[in-house]
Amino acid sequence: MTTVPALEIRDLRKTYATGVEALKGISLSVAPGDFYALLGPNGAGKSTLIGIVSSLANKSAGEVKVFGVDLHAQRSQAMRLIGLVPQEINFNMFETPFDILVNYAGFYGIPRAEAVVRANQELARAQLSEKAKTMSRTLSGGMKRRLMIARAMMTRPKLLILDEPTAGVDIEIRRGMWKTLKEVNAAGTTVILTTHYLEEAESLCRNLAIIDRGRIIEQGPMKALLAKLDVEGFLFDVDGALPATLPDIPGATLVATDDHTLDLEMPREMDLNRVFAALAGAGIRVRSMRTKSNRLEELFVRLTGQPEAAAASEKRA
């Protein structure tokens, strides 16, 4: 039995009036219930792709289907299946969160009684129940972001699309939003996320596509793509001060990041016991170790050849 994809894109192209080719034949398929990441540097075509899928921009050629519904031939029906969370905060700051949600539902023909029930449910899921009757302009940045997600969920979309939802918020707020998005996905909603925070994609998403210069240069399961890396990274916390000279480990790179921390990069096939033996021989006692969380960033840099994009994401994070 064949499962209809939540989103199916075939040979999607977009050329602007200026002659700029933003999309050059994008094809991808997102399974129902998936948590899918779209990654790429600025100008890669992510926003154009999201704009076309959410009917904010017109395609030049190609096909887009949402749960089997053709976006071009049956636009209204397809759009009823989609919820969009844009990067910009775009609700009325002088309305309460409760009113924002109820009024939004009204735009989609949802009866007020049902809208009230849904609003209370979504405010609770977004941990905003206590702020339901507060003027929205007084909410924190993280609360406003969660309110955007709650608003999109008022129509009970089968597909939720988020365009840089955590841009500009600190790591604590980001992690709180991750929890919300995981709950939305666990409840059955398919989620597509565009993000510059590669740690975010690795933490949340099961599959991904990397877009560069209007083309998909890699796509597939997150674990399979990360497995393509032939280098692993570890951080070691050590007891006592490090010696003036670190041991030489052939094939590996060992650097002291401070007086009590070592940064190791080694081939995946290398036996980690060799590393521990070399450290012990130099009188270095490892207290604890952890895997570095930049594997996806390294993959991104290798595939796009744009280390400045990764550096920027590191700085913003």
TrEMBL record:
SUPFAM superfamilies: P-loop containing nucleoside triphosphate hydrolases. InterPro entries: AAA+_ATPase, ABC_transporter-like_ATP-bd, ABC_transporter-like_CS, ABC_transporter_ATP-binding, P-loop_NTPase. Keywords: ATP-binding, Nucleotide-binding, Transport. It comes from the Bacteria. Pfam families: ABC_tran. PROSITE patterns: ABC_TRANSPORTER_1, ABC_TRANSPORTER_2. One of its GO terms (molecular function) is ATP binding. The keyword Mitochondrion does not apply. Residues 7-238 form the ABC transporter domain. This is ABC transporter. It comes from Arenimonas composti TR7-09 = DSM 18010. The lineage of its organism: Bacteria, Pseudomonadati, Pseudomonadota, Gammaproteobacteria, Lysobacterales.
